[in-house]
Amino acid sequence: MYEQITRNKWRSFFLILFFLCLIFAISWAFGEVTGWGAQGLIIAGIIAVAMTFGSYYASDKIVLAISRARPVKKEDYPYLYNVVEGLAIAAGLPKPRCYVIDDTAPNAFASGRNPENSVIVVTTGLLQKLDRAELEGVIGHEMSHIKNYDVLVQTLAVVMVGIVALLSDWTLRTFFWGGGRRRSRERGSGSGNAAAIFIVVALVLAVLSPIIAQLLRLAISRKREFLADANGALLTRYPPGLASALKKLSADREPLEAANKATAHLYIVNPLKNIKGRVNKLFSTHPPIEERIAALEKM
């Protein structure tokens, strides 16, 4: 389990490092076309952070409202409360607030920017269809998302995607408005060929960078799922519990009505239709269930 956790942490680190390299590359492209240099990156970064700042601090309230989740008391679901309290103690975290979605499709997610402002949400279908060991596996997985600050990591990824998208859009708009062509003429005819090559490279980066950035964000999301599986198994000390729960969740074909593409990445399994095909899996927020189960069974 410790090897799996270490491996996934390093993979997440290298994905974010590659993200930063991509931002550097697109900022260079932006500087080539506009002549703004590093100032363009600073401006784009300020705007992207401002756009995500408000939603980050209100993320749990927004998600709960979208998902139609309702708060529950201990007397409503003592079974759920006991599991959450026990695993919060095992993880060394404050007990998250508990919410329930009235839906027979089994699923769960965690939200909140830090352990002190966290929530765990489960569907009524999850409580009905899983036994205690399986429920502990699912709650352990979600508790690990809270402990690992996965919401913070995902927010960082969103900010990076925003920076890349803004720089890319500005680069293309500047070129089509004539900025890139003016820059080429200002460099003189002697360096015309080199300037043309720089402009082409910059445009290719501007077109491809948003796609690459989105793929990196989704890859980070998938790696965090593997990490939460491993951490969850470490909390419960019983990997078969989560493996059995994932099998049940993947076998259940009922879609979750309260879920949508904006919130699908939060859930322990994709609440929408199963994604098939290699290309579609690249744009999936979750790794294949079979791979997650296999990793748990190896533990």
Explain this structure.
The chain has 299 residues and is mostly helical. It folds into 2 domains: 2-47 and 164-220, no CATH class; 60-150 and 222-298, 2-Layer Sandwich (Zincin-like), CATH 3.30.2010.10. The chain contains 12 helices and 4 strands, in the order αααβαβββαααααααα. The protein has helices spanning 2-34, 38-57, 59-66, 78-91, 124-129, 132-147, 150-176, 179-186, 192-236, 239-251, 278-282, 289-298, and strands at 70-71, 97-101, 108-111, 119-123. Strands 1-2-4-3 form a 4-stranded mixed β-sheet, sandwiched between helices. β3 and β4 form a beta hairpin. α1 (2-34) crosses α2, α7 (150-176) packs antiparallel against α9 (192-236) and α9 (192-236) crosses α10. It is elongated and about 70 Å long. The N and C termini lie close together (6 Å).
Brief synopsis:
The chain is mainly α and 299 residues long.
Shape: elongated
Radius of gyration: 22 Å
Q: Estimate the mean pLDDT confidence.
A: 78
For this structure, what is the CATH class of the largest domain? Alpha Beta
Strand order of the largest sheet: 1-2-4-3
Write down the domain tally.
2
Q: How many beta strands in the DSSP annotation?
A: 4
What is the level-2 CATH architecture name of the largest domain? 2-Layer Sandwich
Runs in which pLDDT lies below 50 for 5 or more consecutive residues are none
State the helix count. Answer: 12
Proportion of beta-strand residues: 5-15%
Largest sheet: 4 strands, mixed
